Amino acid sequence: MATLYPSLEDMKGHQVLQAQAAAGVRTPATTVATEKPKLTSATTVSTEKPKLTSGTEPPVLYPNLAELENYMGLALSSEEIQKNLGTEDSTALTPVGPSPGQLVAPLSGNSAGLRRAEIKPGVREIHLCKDERGKTGLQLKNVDQGIFVQLVKANSPAALVGLRFGDQVLQIDGKNCAGWSSDKAQRALKKANPEKIVMVVRDRPFQRTVTVHKDSTGHVGIVVKKGKIVSLAKDSSAARNGLLTHHCICEVNGQNVIGMKDKQLMEVLAGAGNVVTLTIIPTVIYEHMVKRLSSGLVKSSMDHSIPDL
């Protein structure tokens, strides 16, 4: 089984680090990067140089990444790489390499958004209740003989238990949902015990996540119109990592952005940090899932909170 990486940049970074580690390259003890350039806006970057200190600091384990910076326009430091890999990943830089199937993330391993956006395999059981008005805050939709989450209202019981747009509902109170109509699913919720509704759920099977990295100008390389990716910049992180046009952005670092205006979505992207994990869905599937759902309801009610880790 091959080693897995969140992004192509992580793979290239690991290959450079592993080659240098195999060659015995180390950063001298007198050169320790203590600060990296910080983005001051979505389109500008600080011109301040990394500060160097000398003296008694311990040597940094990983060499500087000038090769990656030249190749991919990233602003990185050895200190950041060391923090992302951590001590438990030290075997990733040995000639033997990481264990088969291990996720190695020298550039994005410290990203909370990567963890928030994770689409986990398998199924899980959740316990849902109703609010004082007898509502769950959940709207369900039949797609291809399955039942899916079409809407999660902000601050609702459904939002509090972590349900998200696109989750597949397999069972409600022990009854299989396969073949149910949207109306039948909603009726099952309405009739359920207000204090405890047991649901079996699979995480967002129609969606996938793509982790990208901002360049030194603060861009990942996408053009978005009405929530859809309409264009990719050549040689950008978005293009390198396999983002596609004709896809809708559902989440940015795990935060739902469905129903947001493009300007608001761009503000979320700008504040998302240098490593951004986008959750996307083919436009044709998205449009089927939100069919007959009021756009006004989506904009005013959809849960846009940042999930807990």
What features would you highlight for this structure?
309 residues; 6-stranded antiparallel beta sheet; 10 helices; elongated
Show the helix and strand layout.
Layout: H1 8-22, E1 32-33, E2 52-53, H2 66-72, H3 78-85, H4 112-116, E3 123-128, E4 138-143, E5 146-152, H5 157-160, E6 168-172, E7 175-176, H6 182-191, E8 197-202, E9 208-213, E10 222-225, E11 228-232, H7 237-240, E12 247-252, E13 255-256, H8 262-270, E14 275-282, H9 283-289, H10 295-301
Antiparallel strand pairs: 1-2, 3-8, 4-5, 5-6, 6-7, 6-8, 9-14, 10-11, 11-12, 12-13, 12-14
What would you note in describing this structure?
By secondary structure, the protein is α+β, with helices and mostly antiparallel strands. Helix content is 25%, strand content 22%. It contains 10 helices and 14 strands. It has helices spanning 8-22, 66-72, 78-85, 112-116, 157-160, 182-191, 237-240, 262-270, 283-289, 295-301, and strands spanning 32-33, 52-53, 123-128, 138-143, 146-152, 168-172, 175-176, 197-202, 208-213, 222-225, 228-232, 247-252, 255-256, 275-282. The strands form 3 sheets. Strands 3, 4, 5, 6, 7 and 8 form a 6-stranded antiparallel β-sheet that branches. Strands 9, 10, 11, 12, 13 and 14 form a 6-stranded antiparallel β-sheet that branches.
Give the structure's gist in a few sentences.
With 309 residues, the protein is an alpha+beta fold. The protein has helices at residues 8-22, 66-72, 78-85, 112-116, 157-160, 182-191, 237-240, 262-270, 283-289, 295-301, and strands spanning 32-33, 52-53, 123-128, 138-143, 146-152, 168-172, 175-176, 197-202, 208-213, 222-225, 228-232, 247-252, 255-256, 275-282.
